[in-house]
Amino acid sequence: MNQIEIRNLNKVFKTKQHALHALNDVSLTIEKGEMVAIMGTSGSGKTTLLHILGCIDHPSDGSYRLNEMAIEQQSPKALAHIRNRDLGFVMQDFALIDHYSVQKNVLLPLKYMKETKLRKERAARLPALLEKLHIGQKQHEKVMNLSGGQKQRVAIARALINEPDIILADEPTGALDQKTSYEIIQLMRSINQEGKTVIIVTHDPSIAAHCQRIVRIEDGKIIEDGANVV
């Protein structure tokens, strides 16, 4: 089953002087449970593609179906709901609130849930989730006091708290040392092995090597898409 299907996708950023084609006629399908690396140099279009997959940005034209839903037909309110319910985001700079505790950061996505019972059920999972990510003892610690690796584990916990089907990670190891990067990518693999689709944007071949499939993008076009032996 194709969980993600994009067809003939284009993204053009227009200025007064010229138009920049960030994505050029991109077509891609990703099945449920895949772990995919999207690789490319700086400016290749890989982050633009991730933002469109994450319903953060809109394509200039083309189609995007997520779980059989036509994303381009959704209202801004519906897209916000999809981002909160179906997608978890992990960023290079962690995107945490430094003066909040670990607990408060991780529980932030639940603030936007209307279902009170479900919100309470998911909040109750927090201690077990933090233990699983080896930061259980940091629950009440302020994020500003954590190491880079610990911050990224908090970001992963926040991405998982709503139990989304898809995790989107933009250079998740870019700010980490080699040892910590390895630990984080192993966490990503274990999340994938639990059945979640994991899509990682990276320029690092050693990170991409842990994914089942590598999609290479340059100048806004997919130039290679193939299975990887993990």
From TrEMBL:
A Pfam family the protein falls into: ABC_tran
Superkingdom: Bacteria
Matches recorded under PANTHER family: CELL DIVISION ATP-BINDING PROTEIN FTSE, LIPOPROTEIN-RELEASING SYSTEM ATP-BINDING PROTEIN LOLD
Name of this protein: Macrolide ABC transporter ATP-binding protein
Keyword Cytoplasm: no
Record's keyword terms, sorted: ATP-binding, Nucleotide-binding, Transport
Family: Belongs to the ABC transporter superfamily.
GO molecular function: ATP binding
Record domain ABC transporter: where: 4-230
ATP-binding listed as a keyword: yes
Alphabetical list of CDD domains matching this protein: ABC_MJ0796_LolCDE_FtsE
